[in-house]
Specification:
By secondary structure, this protein is mainly α. Helix 4 packs antiparallel against helix 5.
Length: about 120
Amino acid sequence: MSQLINQNDLLEQFAGDRDLLKESADMLLEELSSYVKNVESAIAEGSAEKLETTAHTLKGAIGNFHAHSVTKMAADLEAIGRNGSTDGSSELLSELTKNLEALKQELNTIINTGGN
């Protein structure tokens, strides 16, 4: 699988401070499943408004880690909700969830070994 995270941009974002990066990544990894559950709940309820806000939160959390394709998927979910719908969101969330698993693995590699 290709890299999801632009490591150069990521390190620049954290001014090369690997301790701060690790602390921030650990927080994301701890919270990621609850973010996804909130999006799942919004979809199950058929709540476009809740989908928009929960997807926005997820987008912001992962956006800090320069995983642009994954962030775009969350933005697409947010847009579906903003447009007053949840149609198509289950399929998109399924794809996003797969990518989030890959993102977690890649992020763990970066913070635990300093890269690939």
